[in-house]
Amino acid sequence: MKRLFAAIDAGSYELEMKIFEMGGKGGLKEIDHVRRRTDLGDDTFHTGLISYSMMDVLCDTLRGFVDVMDTYKVEKYRAYGTSALRETSNTSVVLDQIKLRTGLDVSVLSNSEQRFLEYKSVALRGESFEKLIAEGTAFVDIGGGSTQVSLFDGGRLITSVNLHLGILRIRDKLSKLEPDMAHYEKYISEIILNELHIFKKQYLSNYKIKNIIVIDDYVSSIMKKVGGKKINDVVEASLYMEQFETMRKKSPYQMASYLGVPEESATLLLPSALIINHILEATGAVNLWVPGVSLSDGIAYDYAERNKFISSPHDFEKDILSSADFIARRYVSSDTLSGELVNAALSIFDGTKRVHGLGKRERLLLQLSSRLRDVGRYVTMSSPAEVSFAIIMGSEIIGISHVERKIVATAVKNSYPNDISYKVFDSMDFDEDSYRTAVKLTAILRVATGLSRSTRKSYQTIKSVIKDRELVITVSSKDDLVLEKGLFFERADTFEEVFGLRPVLKIK
Q1: Secondary structure (DSSP) of 285-305
Q2: Number of DSSP helices (H) and strands (E) in the chain, helices first
């Protein structure tokens, strides 16, 4: 059965809608694409809020999108705002006005959610993506407010870092300096290089980057000059650099004419082109791929995958866990201890499905909580709970939402003290479902930590079974576990309070 779906991106400098047909042999087919330049981010990044006049432009454009959707008889849609709506101080007012004046429900993506959808749109291209990330690859996602750089090696995601190098943000900084054209590029380069200096030092020293994948609205116009009609092919980075040298000598008007883009786009094209240029220089990459996708594609692909219209060739959950592993290693967490903790936590989770009512997604969050529990010990041994919480909240884990990251951080924080503090949950401003999930995962993690006390001891098997009003956890080990058995019950009270089951430890 075929379905028409609309993906709407209320971006920082452009409003975009793509309409897709889902179902049939292709699974997903784009049938229309409309866009309008708005520079929504100019208000946010310059004044901190979206003005009423810009709100009029926003609502008028979205109302036009609704008319197009009605013409096509679109059945389902998803509409998302990004950094301009995320960072403005009047987000709730803007979203309310959009709903009242257009009927659209617009949700605001966290940075990690936004980047994951854009990354997903490329990953679902299949063979080209998988081939590139088998070697050292930097995935560069350039937006209006920031640029996300994700590193891959051996087919897995290593880490992802958000840099304050959005093209609108850069332009806003320069507007305050009012540079003449002779210094315009120099100032942009200084802003970019200041951000890249730390990134290169912290993240690139241990990895050799051969390929760059770029998501950007403007670089495609440069790639047309590099690769002709085959702009989606992988090209040698040197060809891009040569074309960039030709382009940079031109004025904005000449540049726009040369590349065949509106003149108003030239002031954003140069920062974007310079970001790519400096990242190529910093990494020494030899190949460049611009797949020509956008957030709207990611929105559609995500909806199609969730609703079984298409299947993904890539394991995204593995990427999420790999990213968490990198964070743990960066803070010198013990692989042995965290591995035992993950196994214990998942055994308890799987053995208590009928009483906790949680699903696959929550199981993933428990894995993340177990892997990241001890990252704070790298900074301080006296108060690791608070520091672990801060590190997790301050880390980019592509693929989970901001709320999910809060759930993970809260479970970790409350896994340390002898007595659970419900004030921690209350202070996180969770909705009811997220609150319950955080409490349940905390209860499971607390029991699991009671089983994982030493890097010198390991379990051969762990099995959790509900019997009457008890959760019987049976472990087999060649090591002496007298200490673990004695300390295990320190963490049992919370679990019994939440699930009505008393954890009991049996040792073989």
Answers
A1: --EEE-----HHHHHHHHHHH
A2: 23, 14
Buried b / exposed e over 380-403, threshold 16 CB at 10 Å, is eeeebbebbbebbeebbbbbbeeb
Asked if 441 contacts 365 with a C-beta cutoff of 8 angstroms, the reply is: yes
DSSP 489: G
The architecture CATH gives domain 3-109:
2-Layer Sandwich (3.30)
| Of the options 3.30.1330.10, 3.40.50.2020, 3.40.50.300, 1.10.3210.10, the CATH number for the domain spanning 316-507 | 1.10.3210.10
pLDDT at 426 over 80: no
Q: For residues 323 and 402, give the distance between their C-alpha atoms in angstroms, rounded to a whole number.
A: 15
Q: pLDDT tens, 3-62?
A: 999 999 998 888 999 999 998 777 889 999 999 988 788 788 878 888 889 999 999 999
CA 231 to chain centre: 26
Euclidean distance between CA atoms 161 and 155, whole angstroms? 18
Structural tokens at position 165: 């190098």
pTM assigned to the model: 0.85
Confidence of residue 487 (pLDDT cuts 50, 70, 90): low
The tokens describing 264, both together, are 């108003």
Q: What are the tokens at 60?
A: 């008028």
Yes or no: say if 311 and 423 are a contact pair by the CB < 8 Å rule.
no
DSSP character string of 21-32: EEETTTEEEEEE
Task: Give 108's strand partners.
Answer: 81
Calpha distance 5→310 (Å, rounded): 14
Spatial separation of the C-alpha atoms in residues 170 and 121, rounded to whole Å:
26
